[in-house]
Amino acid sequence: MLEKMFNPDSVAVIGASRTEGKVGRAVLENLMQNSELTIIPINPNVDEILGLPCYHNILEVPPETKVDLAIIVVPAKFVPGSIDECGRAGVGNVIVISAGFKEAGIEGARLERECIALCEKYGIKLIGPNCLGIIDTASGLNASFAANMAYEGNIAMMSQSGAICTVTLDWAERIGVGFSKFISLGNKAVLAENDFLQLFEQDPSTAVIAAYLEGVKDGPEFIKIAERVSRSKPVVIVKSGRTSVGSKAVSSHTGTLAGSDAAYNAAFKQGGVLRADSLEEMLDYSRAFSVCPLPEGRNIAIITNAGGLGILTADACYNSGLSIASFEEKTVERLREKLPPAANFYDPVDVLGDAGADLYEHALDVVLDDINVNGIIVLVSPQSMTDVPGIAEKVAAKIKDSKKPILCNFAGGSRIAAGEEILNKYGIPNYSSSERAVASMNALCNYYTIRNHKRGAPAEIKADKEYAQSFIDSASKNKRRMHGLESMDILKAYDIPVVDARIAKNLPDAVKAAEDMGYPIVMKILSPDISHKSDVGGIRLNLKHADDVERAYNSMMSDVRHYMPDAAITGVQLQKMISGGKEVIIGMDRDPQFGPLLMFGLGGTYVEFLKDVSFAVAPIAEAEAKHMVSSIKTYPLIAGVRGEAASDIDSIVRTLLKVSQLVTDFPEILEFEINPLMVMPEGQGCVAMDIRFTLNLNE
Amino acid sequence: MLEKMFNPDSVAVIGASRTEGKVGRAVLENLMQNSELTIIPINPNVDEILGLPCYHNILEVPPETKVDLAIIVVPAKFVPGSIDECGRAGVGNVIVISAGFKEAGIEGARLERECIALCEKYGIKLIGPNCLGIIDTASGLNASFAANMAYEGNIAMMSQSGAICTVTLDWAERIGVGFSKFISLGNKAVLAENDFLQLFEQDPSTAVIAAYLEGVKDGPEFIKIAERVSRSKPVVIVKSGRTSVGSKAVSSHTGTLAGSDAAYNAAFKQGGVLRADSLEEMLDYSRAFSVCPLPEGRNIAIITNAGGLGILTADACYNSGLSIASFEEKTVERLREKLPPAANFYDPVDVLGDAGADLYEHALDVVLDDINVNGIIVLVSPQSMTDVPGIAEKVAAKIKDSKKPILCNFAGGSRIAAGEEILNKYGIPNYSSSERAVASMNALCNYYTIRNHKRGAPAEIKADKEYAQSFIDSASKNKRRMHGLESMDILKAYDIPVVDARIAKNLPDAVKAAEDMGYPIVMKILSPDISHKSDVGGIRLNLKHADDVERAYNSMMSDVRHYMPDAAITGVQLQKMISGGKEVIIGMDRDPQFGPLLMFGLGGTYVEFLKDVSFAVAPIAEAEAKHMVSSIKTYPLIAGVRGEAASDIDSIVRTLLKVSQLVTDFPEILEFEINPLMVMPEGQGCVAMDIRFTLNLNE
């Protein structure tokens, strides 16, 4: 797949130029770095460029010169024509560097659609438009106008921003980071992140996948592919745009609480993606993955020649959720054998300021042997006696052969430069601060967990889908938004327990319904004009006899008429009063990128201002449903705290799975919320007390 | 103060050495960087070192050579003798570089105490022992064995770790950061952070104060001094040891929730100290303060030639609580005038990839003029057309004259190096990532708030201190820990409302008490053997008549005897049942460094696992008490949410101030907790329902 895109024998440059400073020349020069490549400049006005014979049109290239890849740099309006010619000339791979498409407005968007149609017609694989090009260090291809060529390495990088490609390449060059493939995604008209994730998965020269993304093209596919790819290779993504609040009007709790970024967080989590918060983090993590074995636990040993740095690093470990290792007894003994008496033999190991390379080596040897140690951070400060290069050599040799990850922070400036150089030479990352080393160690630990996490298939839920369908059909004929008793039937279709409730149009009906249902009951006003029932006296709790019902009915009518004299009142709703349970919320908001975004949280006022909720993209497997429940901070409140009885968490999990199935089955449900779902003590189930949902009437 | 320590005319080095690699030689060489200094080596075995006449003992130095400062580098056991000689020779300032004191064990600690006594005897100001020395770039003094001399600058730095001095100096040299004074604190036997805070406050060459601390010597003084100093100069401190859980047994909520670090966070906040989480942050913030005016608000403009970087930077602003500025209309118009049509004229301003220095200059000019902009972050990525040095020159010139802070992130590697160099030349920090620039901008904004925050004096509370004293005296005669009704009197002495409660030894007394108090009431078992009353049926709620009291009394006695047949029962406690209020907790735990650490949080189970509590070191002013209440996440629950009535927050604030006064007046109170304090709706006050406290019997 895409073999000839990244390892072509011959490449045409449509819009090649002689003029210095022009993209059409920069691309040509970059391609010429590889002397084995057949390079074919295309320019209607010239016969030769930089010593290469130039054709006026790609159709003129002799058929025996099979063009594997065409790079287009002509102005946007000529690009569709060039693609058409590529198609007719049988060129299967095209990179469009030219800008002026979707990003530039309506006319550009039209041009881009034209290009897409042509690619479909001819089966052309296209990268771009509006991109920097691609680099493949394994094949020696630099099909870009980037000023830097990448070093060889095992990190594959893709970026939705060309400028960020430039920054990353320049930065990587300074700190000695290499790449296997480097792809500027541009507008992702045809090929996008999902295609390249799969390419990187198969690519033998790629061990780590890094990306800068501003969005994903196909969210549900992305989760599936990332989930698979991340089982074999770590996927580190920095996704920008956390802040841009979508313009979509939100009317549910789920929508309000989700913000624009919750879906990405959920999807990345489900896809096993490590989300980096900055380019720096992305590079830091990728460097660690590129050289380190994975730690089999979160117990970290620190070796330092400066006590203060050791403490700061331990602090950083603690903040990241890493543990400071408890050494085996023999480790402490062996450290004591060679380290001076004033040294610290426990984690963080302080070899003291005058320690030479041999002491570092000894400490590393001993600590590596300790079964309680999963990873090591080596700190070196340039004190007056410190043999920085000597220590670097010893440490680098250990890291090369280690089965446990070892990360370094040689801390300082010019006096540690020689050490950094040696580490660089061995391809070992040196982090400029111990906090960055710790963050990267944490990423290694997190990926170990991701890789060993069993997700399982989405649960199969038995449901009366036809009944639900007929209900939705009739509902959408009438109105868009539904809530309350009238829409409870859709829950029944998915076997979600709902509270016993009746509608009564007058007092005698209300009394009769109450007598049928049994006491105690709750009475609520029914009116299309009243949304906050309690504000107008429209709720009465704990009615215990027919008398109570009568008194409540009469006073409620009087109250409601007082507060809202013009409200149309259609009757009252009676429902069984349920006590002894805890209120939770299960919601769903349809995300434009990923589809059904499920939400779970505690009910009541807490959910709103603590924002203590969890998210996942449906459909979810049982493990995810469990995680949704257990990952909220207030989980102890339902798991049972201070001797209180545990709530029936299994029933929440089952309900989450049923809702997941429901909203997956019916894409026309835009918003959905069970609020509250009353959860009874363990073994006693749960019951939906109220529901609201919004249908998309266009579907 | 300390004038001759940092700007001496003559310096003696006790333990001066000819031997290369020895500290006694390194110090001498460093001092000799200043040719105007009179340097006097002291060594009993030598007559001349490095061309300087050497005395065998400081007492031999002729009296006309007034020695302003002596630096001692002899082995620890000889140090007291040397100090004694300094004292006799009339030397007022001493730096002890030698190690082997408190940090080395019992004998070292004894030696250190001896040194302290001698300093007291002679009135000697001493830095160290176990330190690297000091540097003063204004006077040209390098009285240390550091390998790097600091650049001149306006940042004063002190560090409790010599190794961290070394790292910081080396690092600062690489990135061109300068210092006014640089102090290695060592063991802080005599002079400590509080002394130097005051020195830096007065020092005309210091504009920014930075520190690495592992602890403070006098916590309450530290808060007072820092509070004053931070009004004129920013104080940035990285404090290590967040993780080290104190060995002190904790029995109160306050202690459990505080951990080891809450007191530092509270004290730093009260002292106006900006806490940095790493050395990198400390240097980053200090650099920003060293050159930037303060922003008068949190609205930040971003100027970039790379859209993606702009979005990432906006994300970072959002995460830090900074806002993206809303430009005035005329700003957008003026940007439109010169920027190309595809540019972005709103924040973040995208001048596009091919922008030259003139466009950057124009954008900066225009955005600086906007009254809605408080600070600016300039991003430069090295794209193919980017004139990095040209942009750096224009930007640097603007920054020099700007009344608003401007921070830069020239992003990349070798291709932005020329720009970095120019910025360095102008003394302008370039941050290696936009996230670091944003964090530093946030520090500037936070300091602006700190400097303008009026703290006010601790509130004066009227209290019957004598009554409280007599109560504590009698309590401490009997037992150490007290709770419940028996200790409510201490609250009354400080005018804190307590629940009406009585003790009854038998049923008739109980009925009588209930009739006296009025219904409804709560009955609790009284027994020294029962701590969890509810577990043994020892609590009855909502008793409404004498009948209820009788039934409750009898069934309680029967239940309690059933569960705990051997418990000694002294009677029951009756108290007024209070409903319609919200439970909060006010606690105090005595911190070893800072003294009385107050805690505030909501009552109930939430406080424990949400850890949603606030802290402050007593005595507090009213503003701090208000902040304690409003800064918990669950504040909306008491402030009134969703139409619920607001609680009487004023009464909480008043109670906090009273508790603050109480625990300040009585240092023998080790732990103290009102739990719950029942807060009624606004205007209706609050009432302490239960209290427990622990006295220190040794005082």
Automatic annotation (TrEMBL), chains A, B:
EC code: 6.2.1.13
ATP-grasp domain: residues covered: 488-524
GO MF, one example: acetate-CoA ligase (ADP-forming) activity
Gene3D superfamilies: ATP-grasp fold, A domain, ATP-grasp fold, B domain, NAD(P)-binding Rossmann-like Domain, Succinyl-CoA synthetase domains
Natural source organism: Methanolobus sediminis
Superkingdom, natural source: Archaea
SMART domains membership: CoA_binding (SM00881)
Keyword ATP-binding belongs to the record: yes
UniProt protein name: acetate--CoA ligase (ADP-forming)
Keywords noted in UniProt: ATP-binding, Ligase, Nucleotide-binding
Catalytic activity: acetate + ATP + CoA = acetyl-CoA + ADP + phosphate
UniProt cross-references to PROSITE patterns, sorted A to Z: ATP_GRASP
